[in-house]
Amino acid sequence: MTNLPAFNIRALRLVGPKHSYRVDFTDPHDQELVRPLSIIAGEISTGKTTVLEFIDWCLGAKEHPEHDEVIANVRSAQLAIDVVGPDTDSAQYVVERALGTKTTSAYLYTGDLDTMSGTPVRSFTSEPSDAESLSHYLLQLCGLSGLRLDQSPTQADSKTNALSFRDLQPLWFLTNRRLDNGDLAYERQPPRSIKLNQVVNILFGVSDTEQSTLSRAVEELGAEERELARAVQTLRTFMSDAGFTSIKDIDSESDQLRIRMAELNAQKRVIDDNISARGDFTAELRANYAESEKQAQRIQTELRDRDTLARRLEPLRAQYADEIRRLDLVAESVNLFDSLTVVTCPACQSKLQSQPEVVGSECSLCHSHLTTDITDGQSVPDLSTERRSLVRRLNQLLAFTQEVRAEGDKLRRDLDNANAAVREAQSALDRVSGDIISPFLTQRDEIQQSLGDTHVELKTLLRARQMLLQLQQKEVELLKASGALKEARARKARYLQNVTPRDATLSTISERLFKILEDFGYPKVSLVHVDRYLVPFVRGRRYDKVGSSGAMTLIALAWELALFELAFEQGSGHPGFVIVDSPQKNLVPGAVSLPTPRGSDDEDAEVDQFIRARSRNIVENIYRHVQSWLARHAGAQIIFVDNQPPSTVNQHIVVRYSQNPDDPPYGLIENEDGHA
From which residue to which does any coiled coil extend (predicted)? Predict the structure, then answer.
């Protein structure tokens, strides 16, 4: 069965405001295929490492390159990938991530860099535990989503964290620093070392999905047990402080309170019967009081009607008075204008035989033609009759108003007398009731108060009983949770006893490491193994104590390839590619070398001299091993950054940066070549 990678890297494109910068890892003869081996060659400071760092950025790294030329020319990075499924054809996607902080979101597009969709089909958050994060998506492609890592694997109740794609990064990216800084397996960083070891356990079957599930179950059950224990302790303390210890005691006290309430209710009924019996003696007084109150209410109603009628008559009286004054004014005006009637001719002063009048439309005196309506002379109206009628009606109204007011005054006196009668009847009833009924009312009030207090006590006991029942339920749940936690721990322990022994896995890694070092031509290779923390040893010494910086580079490279090759061959969750920065570091002449570590002996010096003398052959051996393994494992992908790769691998070089403006490409940011 051929194992398939989770995904391959097709190309990287850096997008800027004026230029785009692209590196392709596809086969030049068939763009649908990805090169198994890709080499980015060129001089130093031309952007080779920047390519790998931007690949890492697109796969969720917290930082991106911040060289001046990058910040000036790049706004986002796009990584084209081939996603390979076990039962489906490969699909092409582009992951885009803008330059920014570690929380910068990423977006997924369909297609490759030339055919990518105009809008993203998904957006990713930066939080690894989020189901919508980039990390979760990449882990899904690897078949590792949902797994969790123990924070303290040696503790049975260790807390867990969600597996992140960044936790796999040491197994697919060998950085330049890790080649020779003595921290290859993060042995100087315990938290990262713990994670790396657990990731290797997952990939090699020492710990898989079942252990992750068991670890999470133990963690969740432990948290549930602790929460229940706190709740039980809180309830116990509260009930103890309140003096409630058992449901039996509460039930006994509740029964006594119910008996007490029954007795008080019986006493209350006796008092009510006595009050009812004594009430017969006051029946006449109550009837007299009721009749007096009824009479007072009737008088009150009649008085209200009379007052309302009097208020309504007042405007009518004023209206009649106004009408009489109007008639008086009319009469005075008639007398005034009558004295001005013409009886003498204005021209000759002779007495006129007849009073002037309007005949038709002409004045009989001056014969002027009149244009306005002027009535013929009429007789003066008689207003006295109408005035006498109004005066008579006004006098009648005044007399009626006085009668209404007199009735109102009488009703007020009657109401005062009726209210006095009501007060007297009330006083008589109170005197008799006070002597006969008041003692019973006092007793009744006391019994009612006792009933209320007893009811409150009973409700308190019932609430306490309910809390004790909850306490018992919590105790049962606590016992169940403790049992489930014990069983989960036992299942996890049994599982760990039956899984692939870690020693066997370490032995397999050690054997592959030995084989790769042999292929490299490592001198006098022997006593090769990795310890329980995955730290490699060669010739019985830890890799950073071998006495040669070149030897450290070879061991680090062989260690990275050993883990990658074995994980890919087993098909157990590795993404399917590895990128290595400067595999010839400390090997080729002119390369920067580390000082020989203290404590090195003559044999170490001999190894160092051998590596330096045969560095070219060793480099060719490295590439020969890589090409041979890739030829046998289709789908695997390796990307090297190498200053001076041997001529035997020229066909695998995808780009060579010259650092010469006259020989493009100058570098990754090709327009930053020193020319204006």
Answer: 214-302, 401-435
